[in-house]
Design goal:
Blueprint (H helix, E strand, L loop, with lengths): L1 E2 L9 E6 L3 H9 L7 E7 L6 E5 L2 E5 L1 H4 L2 E5 L6
Antiparallel strand pairs: 1-6, 2-3, 2-6, 3-4, 4-5
Length: 80
């Protein structure tokens, strides 16, 4: 288990828990970022910029401070 912020690029992970304020939690859940869903970090913004995430077919940007408040567990690499 680690914060989403520490997840390596292109590593699939499962969301475990969101430790964010209720309003932000509701918004993230509406976008698909909720416990049990798979998430991948695609890019990291320069100089402390946001993370670009993929959740299913949705891509979104998330501030690093919020990514630190989301627990994930890395999934094993899928075999081709």
């Amino acid at each position: 288990m680690c914060p989403l912020f520490e997840l390596s690029l292109e590593t699939p992970a499962r969301v475990l828990k969101l430790h964010t304020p209720d309003e932000l939690t509701q918004r993230l859940c509406a976008l698909g970022l909720r416990p049990g869903r798979e998430v991948t970090v695609l890019r990291r913004g320069w100089l402390g910029g946001p993370l670009q995430l993929r959740i299913g077919s949705t891509e979104l940007m998330l501030r690093r401070e919020h990514a630190r408040a989301i627990d994930v567990e890395a999934l094993l690499a899928r075999e081709a």
